[in-house]
Design brief:
Length: 107
């Protein structure tokens, strides 16, 4: 009887874990897209202020918008996150190269 109770608890725990994992993998909503897209746009504007926007960032933002307009919010969120990462990389490049050229200049 105790073994059955232990097995039942394990099965119940497994089912709860699977339910939690399934809800975590739920499809992205329009609100998720808007949040991700806004973050990407903000990072891209910061890169623009540093005069170091990458064209691939604009391409990723356009793809995100196109996917969301078609109702594919999963792809829209994914593309938005990619655009944000690209914008942040361009920001890093701009700030790290700001003075680095001085070390490479012929003296």
């Amino acid at each position: 009887m105790r073994n059955i109770t232990r097995i039942s608890r394990l099965v119940l725990a497994s089912l709860l874990l699977m339910a939690a994992a399934t809800s975590a993998m739920a499809a992205a909503s329009e609100a998720d897209f808007k949040t991700a897209y806004a973050a990407a746009e903000t990072a891209n504007k910061e890169a623009g202020a540093l005069r170091d926007q990458w064209t691939v960032t604009a391409t990723a933002l356009a793809a995100a918008k196109k996917a969301a307009d078609a109702g594919d919010f999963d792809t829209g969120v994914s593309q938005s996150r990619e655009a944000e990462a690209l914008a942040k990389a361009s920001i890093f490049q701009a700030t790290s190269e700001k003075d680095a050229w001085k070390d490479r200049a012929i003296r």
